[in-house]
Specification:
Blueprint: H1 3-14, H2 18-35, H3 40-59, H4 63-80, H5 83-99, H6 103-117, H7 125-144, H8 148-166, H9 180-193, H10 197-206, H11 215-231, H12 235-248, H13 256-268, H14 275-281
């Protein structure tokens, strides 16, 4: 299992090419299981494979497998000793943990991961980026538990990391994950979970989807905006966002949770032009 193999799998996830990723993952998972204890560098690659497997399981709505993969990722990440990999494993674990009512455990993992990243006097760009993304995940996790003050504190930490990261030089060929637009994307879901739909939609208006680094992120932005618009009883606006989900990443529109949004729109406004065709087109899961 080479670094190139892992990078290629990451690109498939970023492109929302979930069917193709599902075909290559079994070989990578087998290689990760065989090689995870061969040394820190190999353990880091194995952890990245298990993180991807956990993320794909989340996309498919399979919480149990997502948690099992995240546990394997965490064990390999600890063997790697790489704080960036440890943070990625913590972020992967957060979703299945919060979906199974273990929010405090998720928040503890995320806070510990962030602390490791910022332990040095002058964190590198990769560490700042990982710290900011970990803080955003923690903010979203806290918001889902309706812990407003904690969520806002993590958001402030992420925004600080974003400003610090912006002062570091970077290569244009590798777009940064942690940006003001990424913070705005998370802000939609965070404020929606906190019950502040007006602020959630303000974040949606501020967001520039074209500046997000991947198709998966652009689809996520449209999905979260659709959820906020449904909460605001704007079914037509939500349906427009679902079209953007499909435009950004067709397989995202076929995910179970996104198909559930389509059903909500249909319940609110069954008369919307094109809704029946959209629902039929996205009815069968392809991942």
């Amino acid at each position: 299992m080479s670094a190139g193999d892992v990078a290629a799998a990451r690109r498939l996830f970023a492109a929302s090419a979930y069917t193709r990723l599902g075909k290559v993952l079994p070989l990578l998972l087998a290689a990760a299981a065989r090689s995870a204890e061969q040394g820190p560098a190999v353990a880091a690659r194995a952890a990245c494979v298990w993180v991807l497997a956990s993320q794909l399981a989340v996309k498919q709505g399979h919480t149990g497998p997502a948690g099992a993969y995240a546990e394997k990722a965490a064990a390999a990440a600890r063997r790697s000793g790489d704080p960036v990999v440890l943070a990625a494993a913590a972020r992967a674990a957060a979703t299945p943990l919060r979906r199974t009512g273990r929010t405090n455990e998720a928040l503890l993992l995320l806070a510990e991961g962030r602390a490791h990243l910022l332990a040095g006097t002058h964190p590198a760009a990769a560490e700042l980026q990982a710290a900011g993304m970990t803080a955003l995940t923690a903010a979203y996790t806290a918001a889902q538990a309706h812990r407003s003050a904690l969520a806002r504190d993590f958001v402030a930490q992420a925004e600080e990391n974003t400003l610090r990261l912006a002062r570091h030089p970077h290569t244009a060929s590798r777009p940064r994950e942690l940006t003001a637009d990424q913070c705005a994307l998370y802000g939609i879901g965070i404020h929606r979970h906190l019950g502040d739909i007006d602020t959630a939609l303000a974040h949606a208006r501020r967001l520039r989807p074209a500046h997000l680094p991947t198709a998966e992120r652009r689809a996520r932005a449209a999905t979260d905006t659709a959820r906020a618009l449904i909460d605001a009883s704007d079914a037509a606006g939500a349906f427009a966002q679902l079209h953007l989900v499909e435009l950004a990443a067709p397989l995202e529109a076929r995910r179970p949770s996104v198909r559930a949004l389509t059903a909500q729109v249909a319940e609110l406004r069954p008369d919307l032009p094109g809704l029946s065709d959209y629902a039929q087109r996205t009815a069968v899961s392809l991942i």
